[in-house]
UniProtKB/TrEMBL annotation:
Keywords: Cytoplasm, Methyltransferase, Transferase. The keyword Transferase applies. InterPro entries: DNA_methylase_N6_adenine_CS (IPR002052), Efm5/EEF1AKMT1 (IPR019369), Mlase_EEF1AKMT1/ZCCHC4 (IPR041370). The lineage of its organism: Eukaryota, Metazoa, Chordata, Craniata, Vertebrata. The gene is Eef1akmt1. It catalyses: L-lysyl-[protein] + 3 S-adenosyl-L-methionine = N(6),N(6),N(6)-trimethyl-L-lysyl-[protein] + 3 S-adenosyl-L-homocysteine + 3 H(+). It comes from Malurus elegans (Red-winged fairywren). GO terms for cellular component: cytoplasm. This is EFMT1 methyltransferase. GO terms for molecular function: nucleic acid binding; protein-lysine N-methyltransferase activity. Coiled coil: none annotated. PANTHER family: EEF1A LYSINE METHYLTRANSFERASE 1. Its main location: cytoplasm. HAMAP family: Methyltr_EFM5.
Amino acid sequence: DDDDDIPQLSSHTLAALQEFYLEQQQKEGMKTSQRFNKYSIGSIEEDWQLSQFWYNDETASCLAKEAVLAAGKGGRIACISSPSVYQKLKEEDGEDFSVCILEYDRRFSVYGEEFVFYDYNHPLDLPENLLPHSFDIVIADPPYLSEECLQKTAETIKYLTKGKILLCTGAVMEEQAAKQLGLKMCKFIPKHSRNLANEFRCYVNYASGLD
């Protein structure tokens, strides 16, 4: 019989293959279903090569709520290199505030007009619609723990903010945060979805709920 020459998969392999296909179908189903939310944290995975480290859900929620309170009703929020806070703000689907994301990673262009390509090496290379001092609060998380990176990001922050600043960076940057932006360290300690070697802290220049 010619069928004897056809390789046969074991029942274990077949079961594993079926399980794999089922998982793939479920993933595709989630993406196409109305329940899939492109703004969910994790809908875009962090890229370590771009020095991306997402906050855990609790930290992202806390920072998003702080930003909304600080911005006030109808306030404008700018997220510089802090996409997990941006995504959490969009999950909230609030009508009392508006938000934009300034980010080097062009994957975030899926968010449409709220996405602004941003390279900290060119801190003031911004679109004309981002007017100076037009945001009630600016949240920033510079991608690198260096004086140069913070100094250049600070130029963008000072250009965009009406006054309030929320900075997330390493504890080792405390002196620079005070020098560049006049910020003080908060008691709140941000956590990431993956443990980082460097201790992270939050810094603000206003009376916040993070103390």
